[in-house]
């Protein structure tokens, strides 16, 4: 059984060189910590907040993120796909999620606020009622993705094939409609 760590703040820790102890972290805060290539496998993060942390290529096999919040974090190449899917939920504010993978995940009502999601992968994911607020979705993969009532009103640089994705009730701005028509190679002015 994993140790239980409650209400603790970790500041400027380097988990690339000193592995994070295997535990259930509940209501903990991590500030300016380095998780680059760190092994987070089998750890549980419940209602934790990560502020200005670097998770580049962190290993997340069977990691639990339950109501986790990431603020101004670097999450390049993180394979959220390998996380424990049970109660998986998070919020991303001002984060760099380039090359992150959410393949086949069910992450309804997820908030992505002011995030860079270039080349992220949402293929076969379920993102009902998610919000992409002011997010860069350049070269982001949406392939047989469920996007019912997802809000793309202020998202930009996306290309979503309406015939290959479930977009019933999704919200788009008039200015971003080109991202839905790209495959038809038509001119919109």
Your description of this structure?
There is one protein chain. The chain has 189 residues and is mainly β. It has two domains: 1-96, E3 ubiquitin-protein ligase SopA (Pectate Lyase C-like), CATH 2.160.20.80; 98-189, Pectate Lyase C-like. 2% of the residues lie in helices and 21% in strands. The longest helix has 4 residues, at 178-181. The chain is elongated. 34% of the residues are buried. The model has no long low-confidence stretch (mean pLDDT 93).
Structurally, the number of domains stands at 2
Taking the sheet with the most strands, its summary is: 10 strands, parallel
Uncertain segments are none
Which structural category fits the helices and strands? Answer: mainly beta
Give the CATH H-level superfamily of the largest domain: E3 ubiquitin-protein ligase SopA
Name the CATH class of the largest domain. Mainly Beta
What sort of overall outline do the alpha carbons produce when their principal axes are compared?
Answer: elongated
Order of helices and strands: EEEEEEEEEEH
Alpha-carbon distance between the termini? 60 Å
Mean pLDDT: 93
Q: Supply the number of helical segments.
A: 1
Q: How much strand?
A: 15-25%
Number of strand segments? 10
What is the level-2 CATH architecture name of the largest domain?
A: 3 Solenoid
- The residue fraction in helices comes out at under 10%
Topology-level CATH name of the largest domain: Pectate Lyase C-like
Mind telling me the C-alpha Rg? 17 Å
């Amino acid at each position: 059984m994993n140790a239980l760590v409650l209400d603790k703040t970790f500041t400027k820790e380097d988990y690339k060189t000193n592995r994070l102890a295997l535990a259930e972290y509940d209501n903990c805060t991590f500030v300016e910590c380095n998780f680059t290539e760190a092994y987070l496998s089998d750890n549980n993060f419940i209602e934790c907040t990560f502020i200005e942390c670097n998770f580049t290529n962190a290993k997340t096999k069977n990691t639990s993120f339950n109501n986790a919040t990431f603020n101004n974090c670097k999450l390049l190449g993180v394979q959220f796909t390998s996380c424990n899917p049970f109660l998986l939920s998070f919020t991303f504010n001002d984060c760099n999620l380039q090359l992150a993978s959410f393949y086949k995940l069910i992450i309804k009502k997820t908030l992505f606020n002011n995030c860079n999601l270039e080349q992220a992968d949402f293929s076969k994911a379920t993102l009902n009622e998610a919000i992409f607020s002011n997010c860069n979705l350049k070269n982001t993969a949406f392939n047989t993705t469920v996007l019912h009532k997802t809000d793309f009103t202020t998202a930009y640089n996306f290309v979503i094939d309406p015939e290959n994705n479930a977009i019933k009730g999704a919200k788009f701005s008039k200015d971003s409609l080109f991202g839905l028509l790209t495959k038809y190679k038509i001119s919109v002015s």
